[in-house]
Automatic annotation (TrEMBL):
Keywords, sorted A to Z: ATP-binding, Coenzyme A biosynthesis, Cytoplasm, Kinase, Nucleotide-binding, Transferase
PROSITE patterns assigned to the protein according to its UniProt record, in alphabetical order: DPCK
Family matches, as NCBIfam families: dephospho-CoA kinase
InterPro entries: Depp_CoAkinase, P-loop_NTPase
Gene: coaE
Biological process terms in GO annotation: coenzyme A biosynthetic process
The protein's annotated pathway: Cofactor biosynthesis; coenzyme A biosynthesis; CoA from (R)-pantothenate: step 5/5
UniProt similarity note: Belongs to the CoaE family.
Role noted for this protein: Catalyzes the phosphorylation of the 3'-hydroxyl group of dephosphocoenzyme A to form coenzyme A.
Protein name: Dephospho-CoA kinase
Length: 201
């Protein structure tokens, strides 16, 4: 099994930017968000279960999941959120493990936005946190998703604190506005992870 580096960070921290930089160096990515979308693709058993539980509005005209509608339901209702997590988390984990086991490279970047929230850090060999200020998170997410500040603040409140994330990290990449050395930071960590993967064999 490849050495697993979990890449995480709060909303708007630039996880995708950093992950793509690793990919440019030939490092395989296993992305929890992509897997989460995959398990609820049209005609999947999980999507059928979601459709059975909620109204028709939960499915869009093209047969795909109406994520915005689902988000509204679970955001305001803790028990619905728990029901959804109980349905999807095992499926996501199963698919994640399947993808990780197929990796033949020395190490893999496992992109997991909710690594600490879902208590998954024990499944990784090392944790890399992408760090920015809360102000940067708010500005970037508002611009990217065209949402208001309150919406972003609510999401941030549902995520673990910046302090907690940094405390549990093995490595940190800062991605503040105006920083242009992400490629250099990633290249340095790439060397480090290659060494660790060799030692871990």
């Amino acid at each position: 099994m490849a050495y697993i580096v979990a890449l995480t960070g709060g909303i708007g921290s630039g996880k995708t930017t950093v992950a793509n930089q690793f990919a440019k160096l030939g490092v395989p990515l296993v992305d929890a968000d992509i897997i989460a979308r995959k398990v609820v693709e049209p005609n999947s058993p999980a999507l059928a279960a979601i459709k059975n539980r909620y109204d028709e509005n939960i499915i869009q005209s093209d047969g795909s999941l109406n994520r915005q509608h689902l988000r509204k339901i679970i955001f305001s209702n803790e028990s619905e959120k728990q029901w959804l997590n109980a349905l999807l988390h095992p499926l996501i984990q199963q698919e994640t493990q399947r993808q990780l086991q197929q990796i033949t490279n020395p190490y893999v970047i496992w992109v997991v936005p909710l690594l600490f929230e879902n208590k998954l850090s024990h499944l990784a060999d090392r944790v890399l946190v992408i760090d920015v200020t809360p102000e940067e998170q708010i500005q970037r997410t508002m611009q990217r998703d065209n949402v208001n500040q309150e919406h972003v603040a609510n999401i941030m409140q549902s995520q673990t604190s910046r302090e907690n994330r940094l405390l549990q990290s093995d490595d940190i990449i800062t991605n503040h506005d105006g920083e242009s050395d992400i490629a250099e930071k990633v290249a340095a960590l790439h060397e480090k992870y290659m060494t660790l993967a060799q030692q871990n064999k």
